[in-house]
Amino acid sequence: MADFLLGGQIDPAKHERTATLTTVPSGDFTTHGVIVGMTGSGKTGLGIVLVEEALGAGVPALLIDPKGDLTNLCLTFPNLAPADFQPWVNEGDASKAGQSIADFAAAQAKAWTDGLASWGITPDRIAALRKNVAFTIYTPGSNAGVALNIVGSLQAPTDVSDAEVIGDEIEGFVSGLLSLIGIDADPLSSREHILLSNLILNEWTAGRSLDLPGLVGMVQQPPIRKLGVFELDQFFPPKDRTAFAIRLNGLLASPSFGAWMAGPALDIASMLKTPDGKPRCAIVTTAHLSDQERQFVTTLILSKLVTWMRRQSGTTDLRALLYMDEVAGYLPPTAMPPTKKPIMTLMKQARAFGVGVVLTSFGTFFCAEGLGVDWPGGDLALLYVAVVVAGVAALQVASLARPVAKVKA
C-alpha cells in the first residue's frame, strides 16, 4: 500500500514550507474524500496532485470533468524544455510580462523545473508516468477527443443473474435518456420510464443487445403485452406511445446526434486498463455539452461503473479511483437528478470493492447535504456553519499574522 503525497505543511510564522510532508495511505481513499473550497481556492489543483499520485502507484483513474480543466493532466513534459511549453503558453500572459512567446515559455519551463525539483520530482519520474500510464481524453458527443459511443451502453451484459445490478444500470440509462428529451421521470410512476426499462430488460434477459433506433421502434410495437397486471395498451395506449416515439425519434434525427454513436462503446474495464494491463487515466470531459447532456453522460458512466464494481472481488486495497470535479449539480441536497443515485451507491458500497471516490464542491454545507447529512435545524444550520467557518478563518488569519518572536543572543 503506497502513501500519496498531497503537499507540505507551512510554518505560519515564516510563511514558508517546512520539511513536514502531508501524506495519506492509498487505502484510506477507499473510504472516499471530498475537497471543498471557494472558486479559485485550488480544489482542482489538489485533485490533480492526488490523481497523479494514484497513477504513479499503478491505480487507474476515471475522471469526470465538467469544466475541461483535468485535460491538463496530459501536459507532462519529461524534458521540461522551453519548446515543450511554448505551444501551450498564453500570448496575453507573455505580453503582460513584457516577454516574447519564446522567452515566456523559457521562464515557465524554468519555474516548473525549479518547483518540481523542490518536491523531489525529477524528469525521470515524469517520464515514468508517461510510460506506465495510458492517458485518454474522451469527448462524448464530439470528435474533438476520443469519441465515446454512449448508445453502445445498450449492449447486453454477459451476466444478468443479479437483478439489482441490471436494474440499476437500466434505470441509469433510461433516466439519462429521458432527461435528454425533457422528461423528468420517476422510475416508479412514469409510463415512459417503465416501458423503456421493461423493453431493455426483456431483450437483455434473452441475451440480445440493443441500439437506440431499435429501442425507439419497440416503443410503437413492443414485444411484450403486459406491464404488471395491466395490458400494455391499457397502461400505455398506442396513440400515446406513438407520440413518445416521435419525441425519441427527434433526438435520433438531430444531425449532431451521430457523434453520440461514434467511437468505442462505453466499457469501464477497457477505460481503466489497457489490454496488456497498463493503468489508464480516462478523462471524460463534458465541458462542451449542455446541462441535460452532461447529466445523461455522467449518469451512464456512473451506472456502468457501479455494474463493473459489483462484479469485482472484495479488497481492502485501492483498486481504482473515481474523481468528479464540481459535483454540486450532480448531487443536489433536495432534487433527485439521475446522477444522484449512482453517486450515493458508490459512496455507500465502493469501499468493499476497493474503489475510491473523490468529489469536489464549492461549499461544505450543500455538499454534505447532498451526501445525506441531516443538518440540525435544516437550512438554518447554514448560519451556524458560516459562523464556524468564519471563526476558523479568523483564527488562521491571526495565526499567520502573528509576528515572529525575536530570540536574544
Quick structural gist:
This protein is α/β, with parallel strands linked by helices.
Report on the architecture of this protein.
- The protein has helices at residues 43-56, 82-85, 91-96, 101-118, 123-132, 163-180, 191-205, 212-220, 232-235, 238-253, 268-272, 291-310, 340-349, 364-370, 381-401; strands spanning 3-11, 16-25, 33-36, 61-65, 134-138, 226-227, 230-231, 280-285, 320-324, 355-361.
- The protein has 409 residues and is of the alpha/beta class.
- It is built from 15 helices and ten strands.
- Strand 6 (226-227) and strand 7 (230-231) form a beta hairpin.
- Residues 400-409 have low confidence and may be disordered.
- The chain has two domains: 24-70 and 105-147 and 267-363, P-loop containing nucleotide triphosphate hydrolases (Rossmann fold), CATH 3.40.50.300; 151-258, no CATH class.
Average residue pLDDT: 86
Quaternary form: single chain
CATH A-level architecture of the largest domain: 3-Layer(aba) Sandwich
Output the radius of gyration.
Answer: 25 Å
Largest sheet: 6 strands, parallel
Please tell me the total number of domains: 2
The CATH class of the largest domain is Alpha Beta
Shape designation? elongated
- The secondary-structure element order is EEEHEHHHHEHHHEEHHHEHEHEHH
- Name the structural class: alpha/beta
CATH topology of the largest domain: Rossmann fold
Within CATH, the superfamily of the largest domain carries the name P-loop containing nucleotide triphosphate hydrolases
Uncertain residue segments:
400-409
Can you list the strand order of the major beta sheet? Answer: 3-10-9-4-8-5
